Every structure is written in structure tokens, then in C-alpha cells.
């Protein structure tokens, strides 16, 4: 994938290097040229000095052919604005924004932005979310046999009942976030586009979640 990362702080620089090592083409954008010093010497992506909400600068960085944009600055407002521009102006398919204020999650989701809303989110979790269509690991239970993950429900799951998707003893939808309200999941509940699903999954199945949900490659 061709990925733009807005913000080259400690999190953004590590994310950029990790995705580059995964074989993606990465461009890192930051207003402060000195921030690029956080990138390791072996980083083989590109850097661009500029404002992540400047449309002309984004064009220079190649946003019109980007597969994804990750807004990872220390400002929720900047992250949301950069993500919204990428989504609404340039039609970037995958747009993610790091948010420190959980009250902005609903706003982000309403605009088609995938929120990375945990203040202690790690690079591995964010990379997993990008690779598996918004699946984000939140917590390991016991000795790691079970994981709690979240997933932003795509349009293809709208109208599906929870009981249709669960696998007894392997995978269970425990709760969902809908329009800012957390709800305990019932088997007969129908999923709506934009819901955030909180799922308990056996660790050996965690990478198969898109297949379990029947999410196509185009939706990832």
C-alpha cells in the first residue's frame, strides 16, 4: 500500500518505520523538519515537510494515489481535520486518526474515519488495525488464550444478527458502541453500519476475524 502518515512524533515515526519494513510505500509528513530525526537511519520511506491539512502539500505527497492516511499528531483537531480532508476531498479509502478525547469517537465514525482512540495504543495494535480492516487488539485475558478486540462494522454487516456471526467456544460479540452509547450484545441484535463491535476471540483465530465476518478484501 501507499500510505501517508501525518505526524512524526515518537508514535508516528515508529509506525512509519514498521509499515515501511512491512513492505509498504510510506511518506511521513510533519511541520517540523527536526522531527524526522526520530526516524531510524535505515528508514527507506520518504519525508515531506509541511502541514497535514494543506491540500496542495498533500497532493505533492501523493495523496491522490494513497491507499491510506494515518493522522498521528498530538492534536485531536489536526488529526480529525487531516483525516476528513483525506476522506472527503481526495477519497482516500482507509483513513485513521489517533484521538485522545474519547468523546470525539462518534464524530470520527460519522465521517468515515477509523478512530485510534486509546491513549496507550501501540504500534503493533495500530498496524494490526490497518492490516485487518479496523480490527484492534485491546486486551489479552488469562495467559493470552482469549483476546478482546474491537471492529468498526462495515456496510456489509448491516442487518446481520449477532447470533449469525458467533462461533460457540471460539468467537463471541460481547458488546457494541452505537452513537456513543455502549450496549451489551444480545444474540438477536442486528448490527448497524458504524457500530463498533467488541469481540472475545480465541487467540488462534484472531487473524481470521475478517473471514469470520465475511468481510471482503475490498473492505479491508
Radius of gyration: 17 Å
Class based on secondary structure composition and strand pairing:
alpha/beta
Strand content: 25-35%
Sheet having the most strands: 6 strands, parallel
SSE topology string: EHEEHEHEHEHEEHEEEH
What is the C-level CATH assignment of the largest domain?
A: Alpha Beta
Verbal overview:
The chain is α/β, with parallel strands linked by helices and 220 residues long. It folds into two domains: 2-131, NAD(P)-binding Rossmann-like Domain (Rossmann fold), CATH 3.40.50.720; 136-219, Regulator of K+ conductance, C-terminal domain (Alpha-Beta Plaits, 2-Layer Sandwich). It has seven helices and eleven strands. The chain has helices at 10-21, 55-60, 76-89, 105-110, 123-131, 162-165, 209-213, and strands spanning 2-6, 25-30, 46-49, 68-71, 94-98, 114-116, 136-141, 146-152, 171-178, 181-184, 196-202. The model has no long low-confidence stretch (mean pLDDT 83).
List keywords for this structure.
single chain; 220 residues; alpha/beta; Rossmann fold; six-stranded parallel sheet; five-stranded antiparallel sheet; 11 strands; 25% helix; globular
Helix-strand blueprint:
Blueprint: E1 2-6, H1 10-21, E2 25-30, E3 46-49, H2 55-60, E4 68-71, H3 76-89, E5 94-98, H4 105-110, E6 114-116, H5 123-131, E7 136-141, E8 146-152, H6 162-165, E9 171-178, E10 181-184, E11 196-202, H7 209-213
Parallel strand pairs: 1-2, 1-4, 2-3, 4-5, 5-6
Antiparallel strand pairs: 7-8, 8-11, 9-10, 9-11
Amino acid at each position: 500500500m501507499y500510505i501517508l502518515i501525518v505526524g512524526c512524533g515518537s508514535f508516528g515515526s515508529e509506525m512509519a518505520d514498521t509499515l515501511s519494513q512491512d513492505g509498504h510505500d510510506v511518506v511521513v509528513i510533519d511541520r517540523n523538519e527536526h522531527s524526522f530525526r526520530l526516524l531510524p537511519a535505515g528508514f527507506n520511506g520518504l519525508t515531506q515537510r509541511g502541514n497535514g491539512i494543506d491540500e496542495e502539500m498533500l497532493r505533492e505527497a501523493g495523496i491522490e494515489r494513497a491507499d491510506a492516511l494515518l493522522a498521528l499528531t498530538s492534536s485531536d483537531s489536526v488529526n480529525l481535520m487531516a483525516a476528513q480532508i483525506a476522506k472527503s476531498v481526495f477519497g482516500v479509502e482507509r483513513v485513521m486518526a489517533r484521538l485522545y478525547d474519547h468523546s470525539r469517537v462518534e464524530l470520527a465514525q460519522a465521517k468515515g474515519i477509523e478512530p485510534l482512540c486509546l491513549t496507550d495504543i501501540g504500534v503493533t495494535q495500530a498496524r494490526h488495525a490497518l492490516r485487518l480492516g479496523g480490527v484492534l487488539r485491546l486486551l489479552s485475558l488469562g495467559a493470552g488464550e482469549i483476546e478482546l478486540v474491537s471492529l468498526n462494522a462495515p456496510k456489509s454487516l448491516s442487518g446481520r444478527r449477532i447470533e449469525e456471526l458467533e462461533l460457540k467456544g471460539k468467537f463471541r460479540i460481547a458488546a457494541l458502541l452505537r452513537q456513543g452509547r455502549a450496549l451489551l450484545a444480545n444474540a438477536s441484535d442486528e448490527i448497524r453500519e458504524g457500530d463498533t463491535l467488541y469481540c472475545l476471540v480465541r487467540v488462534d483465530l484472531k487473524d481470521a476475524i475478517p473471514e469470520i465476518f465475511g468481510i471482503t478484501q475490498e473492505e479491508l
